[in-house]
Hints:
This protein is α+β, with helices and mostly antiparallel strands. It contains five helices and 23 strands. It starts with a helix and ends in an 11-residue tail after the last helix.
Amino acid sequence: MKKLVFPLxxxxxxxxxxxxxxxxxxxxxxxxxxxxxxxxxxxxxHDHESPADExxxxxHEAEEHDHSDCEGDHAHDHSEExxxxxxxxxxxxxxxxxxxxxxxxxxxxxxxxAQGDEITLTATHDGIxxxxxxxxxxxxxxxxxxKLVTISGKGMINDNIETTFIELKTSYETAxxxxxxxxxxxxxxxxxxxxxxxxxxxxxxxxxxxxxxxKNYTAAGQNITASTSGFxxxxxxxxxxxxxxxxxxxxxxxxxxxxxxxxxxxxxxSMLPQIQSANFxxxxxxxxxxxxxxxxxxxxxxxxxxxxxLFTPVYFEVDNVGxxxxxxxxxxxxxxxxxxxxIVIPKSALLEEAGRYYxxxxxxxxxxxxxxxxxxxxxENYHIVDGLEVGDHVATKNPYQIKLxxxxxxxxxxxxQH
Length: 418
C-alpha cells in the first residue's frame, strides 16, 4: 500500500507543476497573440521587430506615461497652491505667532478743545449787539480780523459808546496840547522836570485810552473782530441784546489740537503711571483712532477724583485730522504694561455664540470652531489666553460665511471635494 501511495503523490505534484507552467505559457502566448494582432493590423509585409526593440519601445511608452503623470501631478500641485492662495485671500488665513501686546484699561471719555486752541471774544464796552454778518452760525469759518459783532450805543443815555469816543478824543487832544506846551516851558526852565513828568503821564494815559476805542470804532459803533482764523464754536448772544463790558460774545476754535479726556474707574488708579498711549472709538461714526497716529501725547492724569465723581481723569492731546468732533463722547482703550509673547488675533476673526466668543481654525481640509478665553482688547486686537496655540491657522475674514457653510453641512470653499 505504501508503495502505491508514494508514486501517486509524485504524479500529482508533476501534474500540478505542469498545469502552472501551461497557464504561464498560455498567458505569454496571449500576449504574443495580442502583439501579432497589433502587427497584423498595421500591415503584414514588414518584419517583426526584435524582442530588444519591443522592450525599448515599451520603455519609451512607459517613460512618456510617467512623464505625463508627473506633469499632471505638477499641474495639480500648482492648482492646489493657487487655490490655497485664493482661500488665504478670501478668509484672511493667518498663522498664530507670539507677539507683544499691552494691558488695556477700557473706559469712556470725551473730546475737548485744547487750551489755547479756543478763544472767547468779549464786549469792550456796554451797548447793543449788532451782527455784522447775518449768516453767522456755529461751524462757520472765519479769518483773522474779520468783523463779527458791533456794539452800538445808539439810543442809550448812559455808557453811550459814541459819547465815550468823543470824550476820549477830546481828553487825548487836550492832554497832547498840554504836554507840548509843558515841553516848551521846561526848556525855558519855567516848569520843573517833575511837573513835566506828571503832564507826560496824563498825556500817555489819554492816548492809550483813545487808541483802544479808536482801533475798531466806526460811526455804527465798536466792532468786535476775530483775533485768529478758525471756526465759530458757539455764539453766546443774540441780535439786539444788551451786553456789558467783558461779557462773552463768541467762541472761536482753531480746531487744530484736541484733548481726549478718559474717565478711569478708581480700581485702576494704581495702573495710571503705566499708561503710554490710547486707542479710542468715536461713537458717531464707529471709527478707531490711535493717539500715536495723531501726533498725540499724554498730558497728565489726575491725582484725585473730581467733585461728586467716581472717576480719575487722564488727558491726551492729539491733532485734529478733520473728523474729530469736540464735545462728543468716545470709547477709550488705555494701553499700559507690556505683555510679551502674547497670542493676539484681530477683532474681525471673532464670532459670538450665547455670550461665548469663538473663531474658525484650519484643521486638515476643514475649519473647526475654537472657543476662546479673552483677557483684554485694544479696540482692534484681542489677547487670547485659552483656545488657540502658536502655529494655528485662523480665518480673519468672512467668518460668518464659514459659519453658514457649516450650518448647511456644506464645506466652505477652502476644501477640495473629489
